[in-house]
Design goal:
alpha/beta, Rossmann fold, six-stranded mixed beta sheet, 13 helices, about 20% strand, globular, binds NADP nicotinamide-adenine-dinucleotide phosphate
Length: about 300
């Protein structure tokens, strides 16, 4: 029996794991934890990967509230879990819980992947490098060579994008946010990564998310990353001022539901290339798989699983 029929498990289930999962064909030892978690597409991606790789393991959704995190982690250790993914609202809290934190996770201030080895928790952030791989796959370019605008640099996804661009030493980085103070603070933290020692010039700046500020910057930008939650609903505002895109812009929209966002359509109408956030979801999952198993992830099985969904 596959456990996917029961779409979300609880702490009480986890504390009685052997009995609750006794009818399963594959041992459930990987999970995504969150509150809420029912929306997560990760099982659709990881279970085909585990089957393709011939690994005796099933990946499930676990609903854990903040006050249940500690007990949940102890129960996962007791049930010999290999690791887990972390989604809202636990990504920041997990930085304080893990035994070891990767440099990227520490800079982003968020853990989305945990590997459990000999009872110790190793925390990683694969959203940031996952975005990097997705952009490379979609456009055949590397962040290092690009001038990048991150719109929505106040949220967790925007922070991951900004950190990845800075760690890749991109040519120029502009961080735009409705609440500009958050983008300013982030830019200050990343300044050492984007300052030229020879001439003291900095390659990073923060701007307010408004039509004038965005229009002024777009002339010196190659890649636009939408890291706001704008685009998920039909009555959302425009991410960029109408008419501000050019044919040589690349547009990466982290939103993937709907698969064709208004921002992507606006880009394509003026001849620019655009991609949705499904690639980022895929690659963050593939990198998580590699942390758990130290094997190359079966990416095509994961992609098919996501596309089938
Ligand atoms: P979040 O923490 O809630 O941040 C939302 C960001 O959007 C903030 O910068 C916020 O600005 C801005 N924003 C929201 N509504 C806005 C509006 N009406 N006008 C202007 N700015 C607005 O969310 P998140 O977790 O970073 O996620 C952001 C998006 O990325 C979501 O659509 C999410 O689904 C997507 N995402 C995709 C992937 C993937 O794998 N493809 C991974 C993670 C996230 P303020 O700071 O001013 O509030």
């Amino acid at each position: 029996m596959s456990l996917e029929a029961k779409s979300v498990f609880t702490l009480a289930d986890l504390q009685n794991w052997a009995e609750v999962t006794s009818g399963s064909l594959r041992r459930p030892r990987l999970a995504v934890i969150g509150d809420p978690v029912a929306h997560s597409r990760s099982p659709q991606m990881h279970n085909p990967a585990l089957i393709a790789a011939g690994i005796d393991c099933e990946y499930v959704r676990l609903h854990l509230r903040s006050e249940e995190l500690e007990a949940g982690i102890e129960a996962m250790k007791a049930a010999h879990f290999i690791g887990f993914n972390v989604t809202i609202p636990h990504k920041a809290a997990m930085c304080e819980i893990v035994d070891e934190l990767s440099e990227t996770a520490q800079r982003v201030g968020a853990v989305n992947t945990v590997a459990i080895r000999e009872g110790k928790l190793f925390g990683h952030n694969t959203d940031a490098p996952g975005l990097h791989r997705a952009i490379h796959e979609a456009f055949g370019v590397d962040l290092h060579d690009l001038r990048v605008l991150v719109v929505g640099a106040g949220g967790g996804a925007g922070r991951a994008a900004a950190v990845e661009c800075a760690m890749s030493s991109c040519r120029r980085l502009v961080l735009a946010n409705r609440t500009v103070e958050k983008a300013t603070l982030l830019a200050e933290g990343l300044l050492p990564l984007l300052s030229d020692q020879d001439d003291g010039q900095t390659r990073i700046r923060a701007i307010r998310w408004d039509a004038d500020s965005l229009s002024q910057e777009l002339g010196e930008i190659d890649l636009i990353i939408n890291a706001t939650s704008i685009g998920m609903k039909a009555d959302d505002p425009d991410v960029l001022p109408p008419g501000s895109l050019r044919a040589d812009h690349l547009v990466y929209d982290m939103v993937y539901a709907p698969p064709q966002t208004r921002l992507m359509s606006a880009a394509e109408e003026c001849g620019a290339r655009a991609a949705n956030g499904l690639g980022m979801l895929l690659w963050q999952g593939a990198l998580a798989f590699e942390y758990w198993f130290s094997w190359e992830a079966p990416v095509e099985a994961m992609r098919e699983g996501l596309e089938r969904e």
